[in-house]
UniProtKB/TrEMBL annotation, chain A:
Pathway: Amino-acid biosynthesis; L-tryptophan biosynthesis; L-tryptophan from chorismate: step 5/5. GO terms for molecular function: tryptophan synthase activity. It is an enzyme of class 4 (lyase). This is Tryptophan synthase beta chain.
TrEMBL record, chain B:
The alpha subunit is responsible for the aldol cleavage of indoleglycerol phosphate to indole and glyceraldehyde 3-phosphate. Keywords: Amino-acid biosynthesis, Aromatic amino acid biosynthesis, Lyase, Tryptophan biosynthesis. This is Tryptophan synthase alpha chain. InterPro entries: Aldolase_TIM (IPR013785), RibuloseP-bd_barrel (IPR011060), Trp_synthase_alpha_AS (IPR018204), Trp_synthase_suA (IPR002028). Tetramer of two alpha and two beta chains. The gene is trpA. It comes from the Archaea. Coiled coil: none annotated. Its EC number is 4.2.1.20.
Length: 390, 268
């Protein structure tokens, strides 16, 4: 493998039409990374516009309930309501430096679409967002937010009409319009250099967590838990801790249970394959056809995963597990009731795993949960589910 | 000499290459469609292996992928289809696929089975030269030609890299974009054909967007060795749902018209 290899995962499995645009992007990103002016501009937007640093919140009630010291990294308080803004601002700024006149994006839960719409609005670049029709129906609020922010939402009616299909459409658009169009990818997936670019823009989560926990506790945490769909919030908080003695736990969408086959737990139940330009773990059948997925959470309803996560799984550095829809919904309620924080359904998976992990922890052990986003967008959907069960 | 090289060596006119999705809408009908295309006068047959997520394809071929998978198509049945065509015809056969079905089967096993079934070449739409090492070795071992794509935005300095790996012919993409029927051809196509010619000694076939006899003539006049028609053929198959006989008649007529256009072009 030539470029962008994470221990044999990753790469550039794309049509020839995308090789030149990817090379252009890689060069532009290397230049931006080394450009103090670009970095300063990004830091200014992150601090003054997006609201970084986000707090690290000690959860008094949950800590008492679970019997260990529980902290939340509050990406839900970032402008836009999720960690996605870190990446969207970084990439939109890169697009601007590259002289691109149009930004396209794909979105599942809508959070990346909203973040890209926000970044496009503030930087003055038109944004078009591909979104599966299934996801549009379950994330109506975010569709409206994107339109309010001036973005055009393009419905995707192919396949299962979820995130995977939106990525396909965005890639096809980019194949056709690569000259003037910047493709703002929403997670640490896709062909090189995207998994690296997105990870670099999300590393700020882990860097802040590190200094914040050292200030609060005088030591590193014992464990960090984050949800994994494509895996950008997880890689963002994990990455600065990879060389530390900290347990890292990634939580996938267990859906109706791994044995049911209706889930999005790629690393827990997948095999190696190539999707959306990268070699990674994948939910697929024996012929390499990509399987349909299920999750109560639109942002985790994806059959692939970032290639760096695949490397970290095979290296044994990160433990990957899954929680079910029901466990995530219970955690959604628990955090709302006990801490006054309504988490995104994606993040609720991490909270649910924290409840499980706490069983093996001592009272003074420190657990950090990455609260990747807020749950406003999910309230309507959860109300429908809970109402239906009464 | 491979069957493809032999065909080009003996050619007195530009070729017509025709594509269909294997198993669209079901394996038996797909065999009938393939034979109608060959009878219509296609010089090379391209068979697409259906994939759930074909990012290089436009809506017409994507829908055919969906139909074929819904019709129960599998990689085993693709090889059975190739075998059945080979029993009936000596037409050169190119398998066109996304990489995942090949990767999952294993490069070596895939190439062995493809060759054994009677395929002559493989084109993997999302496997650029940089990623093709393992597949390339397996294809060479099994004497399969390796078709590579050249895109409108392929920088000149990449052409030797692509030409160095390719065999059979080079597939020049006529437009920046995905597969699909288009009204007119990019006027820059002649310049691109010349650029590819100067970098490679292989025959140059032009595809994407070609659907009409005048497209074929234009490509031939611009110096291409072959025109590739895909979405237009797939659309005919899609339009004739359950009526295999009508579909075969329509395919024969359409392909014959395109082949005649190739014959009448200025290259003769």
């Amino acid at each position: 493998m030539n470029a962008g290899s994470f221990g044999g995962f990753g790469g550039q499995f794309v049509p020839e039409s995308l090789m030149a645009p990817l090379q252009e992007l890689a060069s532009a990103y290397e230049a931006a990374k080394a450009d103090p002016g670009f970095q300063e501009e990004l830091q200014t937007y992150l601090a003054e516009f997006a609201g970084r640093p986000t707090p690290l919140t000690f959860c008094r009630n949950l800590s008492a309930d679970l019997g260990c010291r529980v902290y939340l990294k509050r990406e839900d308080l970032l402008h836009g309501g999720a960690h996605k803004t870190n990446n969207a601002l970084g990439q939109a700024l890169l697009a601007k430096h590259m002289g691109k006149r149009r930004i396209i994006a794909e979105t599942g839960a809508g959070q990346h679409g909203v973040a890209t719409a926000i970044a496009g609005a503030v930087l003055g670049i038109p944004v078009e967002v591909y979104m599966g029709e299934t996801d549009m129906a379950r994330q109506r609020l975010n569709v409206f937010r994107m339109e309010l922010l001036g973005a055009r939402v393009i419905p995707v009616a192919t396949g299962q009409r979820t995130l995977k299909d939106a990525v396909n459409e965005a890639l096809r658009d980019w194949v056709t319009n690569a000259g003037e169009t910047y493709y703002c990818l929403g997670s640490v997936v896709g062909p090189h250099p995207y998994p690296t670019i997105v990870r670099d823009f999300q590393r700020v989560i882990g860097e802040e967590t590190r200094s914040q926990i050292l200030r609060a506790e005088g030591r590193l945490p014992d464990a960090i838990i984050a949800c994994v769909g494509g895996g950008s919030n997880a890689i963002g908080i994990f990455h600065p801790f990879l060389n530390d003695p900290v347990r890292l736990i990634g939580v996938e969408a267990g859906g109706r249970g791994l044995e049911s086959g209706e889930h999005g737990a790629t690393l827990c139940a997948g095999t190696k394959g190539v999707l959306h330009g990268a070699l990674s773990y994948l939910l697929q059948d024996a012929d390499g056809q990509v399987l349909e997925t299920h999750s109560v959470s639109a942002g985790l309803d994806y059959p692939g995963v970032g290639p760096e996560h695949s490397m970290l799984k095979d290296a044994g550095r990160v433990a990957y597990t899954a929680v079910t829809d029901d466990e995530a919904l219970a955690a959604f309620s628990l955090l709302s009731r006990r801490e006054g924080i309504v988490p995104a359904l994606e993040s609720s998976h991490a909270v649910a795993q924290a409840v499980k992990a706490a069983e093996e922890m001592e009272r003074d052990d420190i657990l950090v949960v990455n609260l990747s986003g807020r749950g406003d967008k999910d309230v309507e959907g959860v109300a429908a589910i809970m109402g239906g069960r009464r | 000499m491979s069957r493809i090289a032999g065909a080009f060596a003996g050619a007195k006119r530009p070729f017509l290459v025709a594509y269909l999705v294997g198993g669209d809408p079901d394996p038996a009908t797909s065999l009938a469609a393939a034979m109608a295309i060959v009878e219509g006068g296609a010089d090379i047959l391209e068979i697409g292996i259906p994939f759930t997520d074909p990012i290089a394809d436009g809506p017409v071929i994507q829908e055919a992928n969906v139909r074929a998978l819904a019709g129960g198509m599998t990689t085993d049945k693709i090889f059975a289809l190739v075998r059945a065509i080979r029993e009936r015809s000596g037409v050169p056969i190119v398998l066109m696929t996304s990489y995942n079905p090949v990767y999952v089967r294993g490069d070596a096993r895939f190439c062995h089975e493809a060759r054994d079934a009677g395929a002559d070449a493989v084109l993997i739409t999302d496997l650029p030269p940089e990623e093709s090492g393992a597949f390339d070795a397996a294809a060479r071992e099994h004497a399969l030609d390796r078709i590579f794509l050249v895109a409108p935005n392929t920088p000149p300095e990449r052409l030797p890299l692509i030409a160095g790996l390719a065999s059979g012919f080079l597939y020049l993409v006529s437009v920046q974009g995905v597969t699909g029927v288009r009204e007119s051809l990019d006027p820059a196509i002649a310049r691109r054909i010349a650029a590819v010619r100067s970098a490679a000694s292989l025959p140059v076939a032009v595809g994407f967007g070609i659907s009409r006899p005048e497209h074929v003539r234009a490509i031939a006049d611009a110096g291409a060795d072959a025109a590739i028609v895909g979405s237009a053929v797939v659309r005919i198959i899609g339009e004739h749902g359950g009526d295999a006989a009508a579909m075969q008649a329509a395919l024969r007529a359409y392909v014959a018209g395109m082949a005649v256009a190739a014959r009448r072009s200025g290259a003769l």
